[in-house]
């Protein structure tokens, strides 16, 4: 026998199918359960994920009007959700045509504002609130594709400068790198004004993690992130580096400050560059010698577990070598008094997929199966066949809706910041 919950789903879903005059009236109460925290909210979210979202092409008609309608419902519902739930709703919004490639810049900014609200950028940063740190990092990663389309990264970057940098030393080590990775990844999309505000903080952190002389080792991941960020920000506003690093870059603007003596800054910065380069070259040499032994170790390994561990160590060493190479490539030009900053895709960060691998995937990889969006040939049938097919898809497996309702709930419970760990 079907439970009352399943009966509710059947009733609402039937209303979705009988015509465009009625299905919006059915969606609204469903989202109300999500927004208000009903006891069946998890089952409803599963229902939306499995039964409603895949049929958007058939259901959202007229398209622009109905996409706006469901967008407004989702914006109200995501005010209090877990990380995986927020990812689900944002993924659906990004699939709508009103937020597609041809959408105006204002549409992308609307998406960013939804993410900004979830990141809680109006709150005071609390270094002991790990959930907030994880949520901020996750939201930054989620925002990156939208920054690429022209949405402003200003609020995120300003929050980093004003709230996070002053407390950076107190942040747990495992979160520092994640924070620096998000800033590095977003730096190509920073506006000139934001770059000017962020550069002093980046230089401050660079001086902390770049030694003034050769040392045994450095935190190469931090340095790689910071140098990459430095280049992309400085490319937008090069003369800002005159007072920070002692460069002599002429733009004809008063902000060049060419009449002031910043020679000590230049000496200090270039000494740190040299110390970093010497340290990285020595570490790179040691790593190269060690990497030569990996193939022998794999051949002599007696168990699959041993082979797996050795291969994992080999991959880690390969990424480390990429990081070393990136650091040396980025420090080289910075010794000049008028350096050229990298502002293109010349450098691929070590933890990102390397270009040649991506090209090989596109050229020779198997074609992935398209997601169910209602545009496949099987759906382009007559009206009667369409309705029958929709009904079948609506009720198929309905008894399973809600099973595993804890999936995506993170570390338990709904609420601000809950369930964000590991999301990114």
Automatic annotation (TrEMBL):
<dbReference type="Pfam" id="PF05918">
    <property type="entry name" value="API5"/>
</dbReference>
<comment type="similarity">
    <text>Belongs to the API5 family.</text>
</comment>
<feature type="signal peptide">
    <location>
        <begin position="1"/>
        <end position="26"/>
    </location>
</feature>
<protein>
    <submittedName>
        <fullName>Apoptosis inhibitory protein 5 (API5)</fullName>
    </submittedName>
</protein>
<keyword id="KW-0053">Apoptosis</keyword>
<dbReference type="InterPro" id="IPR008383">
    <property type="entry name" value="API5"/>
</dbReference>
<dbReference type="InterPro" id="IPR016024">
    <property type="entry name" value="ARM-type_fold"/>
</dbReference>
<feature type="region of interest" description="Disordered">
    <location>
        <begin position="356"/>
        <end position="424"/>
    </location>
</feature>
<feature type="compositionally biased region" description="Basic residues">
    <location>
        <begin position="406"/>
        <end position="417"/>
    </location>
</feature>
<keyword id="KW-0732">Signal</keyword>
